[in-house]
Amino acid sequence: MRNLKRLKFGIYLKLLCGILYRSVIIEGRYLDEILRKLYSELLNSTDTFDAEKGAGQDLLAPTIILRDPRARISATSNRGNLISALGEFCWYMSGSADLEFIRFYIPKYPPDGINGSIEDAYGPRLIGTGEFGRSVRQIDRVIDRLKRKPDTRRAVISILEPSDLEPGRSDAPCTTALQFIRRRGHLHLVAMMRSNDAYWGFPHDVFCFTLFQEYVARSLGVKVGEYHHFATSLHLYDRHVREACDYLDEGFQNPTFAMPKMPSGCQKENLSAFLKVEERIRKGLITSADQIVLPEYWYDLSLVLLRCADIRFKRGMKFLDNNFSKIKNNFYKNDLPPSGWSEINVILDTEGKDECHSRNTRRRRLSASCVRRRLCWRRAGRPQMPVVGYRSASRPITVGARSMAV
User: Fold this and answer.
1) Exposure b/e, 350-366, CB count within 10 A at least 16 = b
2) Residue 46 CB: number of other CB atoms within 10 A?
3) DSSP string, 12-30
4) Is the pLDDT of residue 342 over 50?
5) What CATH number is given to the structural domain containing 43?
6) Within this chain, do residues 200 and 334 fall inside the same structural domain, yes or no?
7) What is the chain's percent helix, strand, coil content, to nearest 5?
8) Does 245 share its domain with 286?
9) For 184, phi and psi rounded to 5 degrees?
10) What's the whole-number average pLDDT of the chain?
11) With bands split at pLDDT 50, 70 and 90, how would you rate the model's confidence at 32?
12) Which of 249, 280, 314 lies at the terminal end of a domain, its last residue?
């Protein structure tokens, strides 16, 4: 009898440990599938923290797998940040550390109150411009190594450096390393993060890193494989809980929402020409689509950035409509229709704000199935409401915080 009790206790203890220390693996073919599962897990997480940048809850060492890296953009109005993510990609690939550059696309880019170049910027570490003593062109080195030895496990870009962790440093890169690995004719990418903001940082990281992956794959002449994302702490700040609830309220989105394929062959020259066009757009030297001569893929991306510049420089609807009409791929037209372009300045001006707010007044309704519902109601200045059934177009009626359909 005593042995039976011990056996039952042992089974109970193993089950309890499995619940407390389970490893979270989130897989999906497109970004919105990942985000829905991720935010649901975070809203149900019991692991909390209180850091300098705010309090929240996190997941310990989750693994995220995106099956189609080109499906890197959310189809929702809440998380579909194409312009700001593309601007950040240009900032990285140009090798710049200048905050004025990235703040053209993300005006509230941290750190607040700081101007000029920042040492923890990714650009000099990736491209090796020599700024802050960084002269290694790590992306070129990865491509060269994979060409010489396809099965290598040394195709690694190191972002975090020992000096970043020295006392007195106010911040450090969230990304530890990016490892490219080739298997069965496909190039896979594994991103390793020490810390990752699930609401603001994660969607941008997926966008930029998978573009790196596609760029390297085209240089090698191989297919794009899977994108793996590993973060020691993947977290959701309390100030973003309401927006996460709003995002889940939008329901499931188009699963075929993938960006056009990057052209075959090495894209180094095309990327260089694209970055030169981006610089001229950002400085106001290009005002018309007719001034841009690039292959279709890079031409359309340039017009996305030109749209942002048209709004920043307040050129008027004539410029907006004329330049928009020159976009060739319907993906970008469907993603940012003419009626929505006039609101991009509002979206850009609110990127990175700390306050908990809703961008769309039609989506101010809070999800009753949200496990952080009490915090949402408190931030909204409303009395706490009882949990009730809730129906959306894509989810059945759910009752209780733990019954969220994913």
Assistant:
1) ebeeeebebeeeebeeb
2) 8
3) HHHHHHHHHTPPPEEEESS
4) no
5) 3.30.572.10
6) no
7) 45, 15, 40
8) no
9) 50, 45
10) 81
11) very high
12) 249
Please, are residues 145 and 152 in contact by the beta-carbon 8 Å criterion? Answer: yes
Query: Within a domain: residue 365?
Result: no
Q: Are residues 303 and 239 in the same domain?
A: no
* Dist CA 125 CA 194 (whole Å): 17
Q: How far apart are CA 332 and CA 325, in angstroms?
A: 11
* pLDDT category of residue 251 using cuts at 50, 70 and 90: confident
Same domain, 104 and 207: yes
Range of the domain at 318: 268-350
Q: If pLDDT is split at 50, 70 and 90, which confidence band does 112 have?
A: confident
> Among 8-12, 136-140, 336-340, which is the least confidently predicted range?
336-340
Rounded to the nearest 10°, the torsion over CA 109, 114, 117, 121 is -40
Tell me the percentage of the chain whose pLDDT exceeds 70: 75
Phi, psi of 163 (to 5 degrees): -65, -20
Are both 314 and 180 inside the same structural domain?
no
User: Using CA atoms in the order 13, 19, 23, 26, what is the torsion angle rounded to 10 degrees?
Assistant: 160
**Axis crossing angle, helix 201-220 with helix 82-93, rounded to the nearest 10:** 60
Amino acid (1-letter code) at residue 205: D
d(CA 15, CA 8): 11
Which ranges constitute the DSSP H helices of 30-98?
31-43, 82-93
Look up tokens 């019954």; give the residue. Answer: 403
In this predicted structure, the answer to whether residue 347 has a pLDDT above a threshold of 90 is no
Distance CA 82, CA 332 (A): 9
